[in-house]
Amino acid sequence: xxxxxxxxxxxxxxxxxxxxxxxxxxxxxxxxxxxxxxxxxxxxxxxxxxxxxxxxxxxxxxxxxxxxxxxxxxxxxxxxxxxxxxxxxxxxxxxxxxxxxxxxx
Length: 105
Known about the structure:
With 105 residues, the chain is mainly β. It has no helices and 9 strands.
């Protein structure tokens, strides 16, 4: 399974932000998804989790960005890579990516 997760943070006061839209896409394929950071009492507001390959490890060059309701970027695109290598201890696999965002004023 290939997974992306993280938290969107506010600066002042330091807190997690629910209701923020994120867009995640894979390069070279037409696949994008828009996520909304929920209010989640078990993980905290602003925590997000996306399964990018439920069928197994998925290799790709991805990016994620904060966007507005219309999908227009509000942050830079943050690139990340995934692969299908072994994730056992000592392996070099990259299938679980954690990216946090922090609002800047």
